[in-house]
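Input record (Table S2, row 353):
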Amino acid sequence: MAQTPWYPVKSVDPEIYQLIELELARQRSTLEMIASENFLHPALMAGMASPFTNKYAEGLPHRRYYDGCVHVDAMEELAIKRVTELFGCEFANVQPHSGASANAAVMMSLLEPGDRVLGLDLDHGGHLTHGSPVNFSGRLYDAHFYQLDNNKELLDYHAIEAKALEIKPAMIVAGASAYPRIIDFAAFRTIADKVGAYLLVDMAHIAGLVASHHHPSPFPHAHVVTSTTHKTLRGPRGGVILWNDDQLSTLLNKGVFPILQGGPLLHQIAMKGSCFLLAASDEFKVLQQKTIDNAQAFAQTLVSQGQKLVSGGTDNHLVLLDVRHRDFDGATVASVLDHLGITVNKNAVPGDP
Ligand code: PLP
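Output record (pyridoxal-5'-phosphate complex):
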């Protein structure tokens, strides 16, 4: 039998090795239905265990604070070239350690503490980093929220515009952790322009669908786009920042380093580069189409059995089951399913009690 990439761990740390093996067995024996997770290509998983992890390279390619960066420079430049080609934009920073770091870097570079931010309410599908009071974004900035329409449970662009005109945010955040429908980025940009706000699109969840043209691109509408690389994009864990206007380049790059982070995780960045390569392939397009087909078939089946879904169905990779009218709550459903070998995540829904 072929050895796993982590097999050598066994001889130096049998306890951790054992836990890795147990997790592998868990992933193989359960149905993993968490929309923000994916299964990394085995070659990319192996590629994260490279000597790039040994290297310090604070700074950007050819402008480092350390020497010996000839190969990491070439690697990071290649990753940047690939991701800008993949998403059709001019500039990228591939160093954010995660999606949350990417959002923090953007906010810290474009906003001042106390500035107003308008994002999607957490209960309506937004993410913690879009202004939640328990997160840096809600602690550093004056966060306000827009909600989904009460009846249709869809983004209501008229209501978002009214809210934006009322509070005049410095930044509007579009994008979600739990929104099963297409997002109209052009409509968001029109609203942002009316109030002179930056439009940040956080496409973490749908980046794979955007790469394969199954979801409209945030470009040319967004001033800045952030993403994770490990959800639908199917890369290693990490984040990325994308933009078109060179006037933002210095600010955004400084937002990542030195404002937020130290040395980049070069072993992760290398495999982000490989992930961008794979995401440009025809095979990846087929995979994204299958993801949507499966999510829609699943949603239709649930609806035909009388289940209630947020927004009534899905256009993308995720399905949100609303159990408010039932005798049990979502946390109970999630833990019962876990017991049965089906892994999901509990999530707030609009109007969650
Ligand atoms: N942005 C969105 C929309 C997300 O859904 C998530 C994670 O779930 C993040 C950002 C944060 O990503 P990470 O967990 O890599 O920090």
